[in-house]
Amino acid sequence: MRLRVLDSGHRLRGRMFFWLMRAVAGTEDAVAKTSLYRPSFFGRALLRFIRSAMRGQSDWSAGERELFAALVSRLNSCPFCVSVHVGITALALNPTITAEQLDHWRDIGLRSQVAATLAFLEKVTLHPDQVGVADVQPLRAAGVSEAAIVDALHVCFLFNVVNRLANSFGYDWGNEANALKGAAILNRIGYRVPEFLMR
């Protein structure tokens, strides 16, 4: 259910930021709108975690983390997140990737570390109560470092949260063109949000 307060209940600085975003990009990001509604309560921590998980120091490239986000979003049936993160994956990792390919990701021909990690994230997302120590062994066998496993789990956790926000609040890009614009913007700015908006 779309909450009207998430469209109109922001402080003046937030409203000005979204007006500028619409003027420059022709679209706005619903995750940012939710986060900046009450930044001191929830948004500040979420936005900083997003930046760290998606663009912080990691063994994974930005494109690989976008692929993880896209798969988790597809598993959670979140069209809002799937469209934008497939778009960023195409820009940052593989220009031929599509949302439909995520349903058969084992056939894409990914490097062994990425494939092992996607299998792990799939189980963590769909069957978290069945995940055990043995499920980490294929990642280690494929050469995924402990730090990279943690980083992948951070992305998985993040999108299991954001997907639920998106689906609960009815996030919608409106059309595919807006989703692609959103993908291009997020890829370019690297999830940076001006600090003054989070005070």
Q: Can you put this structure into words, describing what you see?
A:
The protein has 10 helices and no strands. It has 199 residues and is an all-alpha fold. It has a single domain, classed as AhpD-like (Up-down Bundle).
List keywords for this structure.
10 helices, single chain, AhpD-like, mainly alpha, 199 residues
Task: Walk me through the topology.
Elements (H helix, E strand, L loop, with lengths): L4 H4 L3 H14 L4 H6 L3 H17 L6 H14 L3 H14 L19 H15 L10 H5 L4 H24 L6 H14 L10
Helix pairs in contact: 4-9, 5-6, 5-7, 5-9, 6-10, 7-9
Count the helices. How many? 10
CATH level 3 topology: AhpD-like
Largest sheet features: none
Q: Helical amount among residues, as a percent range?
A: 55-70%
Looking at this structure, what is the CATH superfamily?
A: AhpD-like
Count of distinct strands = 0
Radius of gyration: 17 Å
SSE pattern: HHHHHHHHHH
The second-level CATH architecture is Up-down Bundle
Terminal residue distance: 27 Å
CATH secondary-structure class: Mainly Alpha
Gross morphology: globular
Q: Beta-strand percentage?
A: under 5%
Count of domains: 1
Structural class, by secondary structure, is mainly alpha
Low-confidence stretches: none
Mean pLDDT, as a whole number? 91
